[in-house]
Amino acid sequence: GAKIVLREADAGDSVEKAIDWLRAKGIASAAKKGARAAAEGTVEAYIHAGGKIGVLVELNCETDFVALTDGFKQLTRDIAMHIAASQPEYVRREEVPAAAFEREKTIQVEKTMAEGKPQAIAEKIVIGRMSKWYEEVCLLDQKWFKDDTKTVDQVVKETASTIGENLQVRRFSRFVMGEGLTRRTDD
User: Fold this and answer.
1) pTM, to two decimals
2) Deepest in the core among 33, 65, 109, 145, taking most CB within 10 A?
3) DSSP secondary structure string for all residues of 38-101
């Protein structure tokens, strides 16, 4: 892997500054890895609540060697557990259909205007509410269920930096027993 050199000029005499610098470099190195193909990986199944909720998630990496490591397997399982608990609808913002975005934006504009906010302030409020909406519906934007100071995306990037390979959450499916069914009533 690439060697990261921390110079005194980067950290001065502050341990906190040195840690921040190293974390930033780790995330930067993970971003560089993002351009590399992640064609290996695994599909993890997670069943929760006595068989009432099931999740399948595909996490990709660059080599089959990494796919077999305990760290990769644990991250995949944790992501599946997170999906079971947090109910995302999409992996990333780019996957949100324009129609779904516009529908939510219309709701937020109407809600904000009904609160009697001036137009200029209302626009800023809607931008903030749409960002919050992304945090609810997009897996990578959600707060990590094990540490809400991080997003799922940050956890994936930190793991990629540690492992030394590009990691990508490709897709997932979440199943809830009986979801979408209507009960038949015999009159």
Assistant:
1) 0.75
2) 33
3) --EEEEEEEEETTTTEEEEEEEEES-HHHHTSHHHHHHHHHHHHHHHHH--SBSSGGGS-HHHH
